[in-house]
């Protein structure tokens, strides 16, 4: 069962653009159908909200299973070392789409048939849609680092950083222990660095769900040894990198992330479930607060998923190096 989930989810992650596009089109059609339906589409509305939370739970479980098999370092791809793209962004985007569809449908039918536009509904649509701008470009492209013989390409949430090897200093800084998801860079010629997009920091690389230490060691190694860059992308060179990384000074190691407790995660989920029940079946006194309770449920669920992901990544960080790379 776990292997089947891993296979299907890996396929969905590779085809993430197609999956997200089809999901958005289907939801647009559902919202349009519900908006023009002659009677209030309560069944469709409840179905969208139920699908939102069902997807959150199902995809969180799927990602948790897949994370046990996902590589965390670099993949040899001919002339490039490519870090694996994290799949959890797709697991976040899909239920987010459903939540936006449910919120949009909740007010669009009323606006069309009762000629009443609720400002609270408009605010909820904006609040639910705005976070897409923070991670959807990264989910669409994939977050990660590619190293070639010419340099480094870092695909980030809102842009891409291109760093030629010639721009880097031969001596790279030790990585701060608290900076778990980033790699600091030192330049001799920063004018060679290029970037596209917005909110791209030129002095660091960002990694998500990857072996930061291995990638940081590789950057420092190739910055200091131009002759070694010719072997980038080969399987033999990758094995050399792994061996070299295990013997590097501990100053490059990052501190393991604190593991959120299971009780805390269960508490987030319980709170989200309670808020969802109040949203769907509001008790007396809450009938005018369904938008706010629905928003609260979504926020609590996001917190639960974030802690779940942090727990999974932190536990992997504390595994010995040989077990992280086994089965590759």
TrEMBL record:
Highest taxon listed in the record's lineage: Bacteria
Organism (species): Actinoplanes lobatus
Transmembrane residue ranges: 42-66, 87-109, 121-140, 262-281, 293-310
Keyword set, alphabetical order: Membrane, Transmembrane, Transmembrane helix
Protein name: Uncharacterized protein
């Amino acid at each position: 069962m776990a292997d089947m989930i891993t296979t299907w989810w890996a396929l969905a992650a590779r085809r993430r653009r197609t999956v997200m596009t089809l999901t958005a089109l289907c939801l647009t059609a559902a919202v349009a159908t519900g908006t023009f339906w002659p009677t209030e589409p309560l069944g469709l509305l409840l179905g969208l909200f139920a699908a939102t939370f069902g997807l959150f739970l199902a995809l969180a479980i799927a990602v948790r299973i897949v994370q046990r098999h996902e590589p965390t370092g670099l993949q040899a791809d001919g002339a490039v070392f490519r870090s694996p793209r994290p799949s959890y962004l797709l697991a976040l985007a899909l239920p987010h789409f459903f939540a936006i569809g449910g919120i949009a449908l909740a007010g669009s039918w009323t606006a069309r048939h009762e000629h009443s536009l609720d400002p609270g509904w408009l605010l909820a649509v904006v609040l639910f849609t705005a976070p897409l701008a923070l991670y959807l470009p990264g989910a669409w492209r994939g977050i990660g680092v590619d190293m070639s013989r010419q340099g480094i390409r870092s695909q980030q949430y809102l842009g891409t950083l291109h760093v030629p090897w010639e721009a880097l200093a031969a001596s790279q800084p030790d990585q701060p222990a608290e900076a778990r998801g980033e790699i600091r860079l030192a330049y001799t010629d920063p004018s060679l660095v290029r970037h596209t997009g917005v909110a791209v920091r030129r002095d660091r690389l960002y990694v998500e769900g990857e072996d930061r230490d291995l990638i940081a060691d590789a950057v420092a190694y190739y910055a200091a040894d131009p002759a070694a860059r010719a072997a980038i992308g080969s399987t033999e060179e990758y094995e050399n990198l792994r061996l070299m990384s295990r013997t590097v000074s501990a100053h490059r190691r990052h501190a393991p992330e604190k593991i959120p407790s299971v009780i805390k995660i269960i508490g987030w989920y319980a709170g989200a479930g309670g808020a969802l029940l109040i949203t769907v079946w509001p008790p007396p006194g809450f009938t005018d607060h369904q938008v706010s309770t629905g928003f609260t449920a979504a926020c609590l669920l996001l917190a639960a998923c974030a802690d779940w992901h942090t727990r999974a990544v932190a536990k992997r960080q504390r595994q010995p190096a040989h077990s992280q790379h086994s089965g590759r």
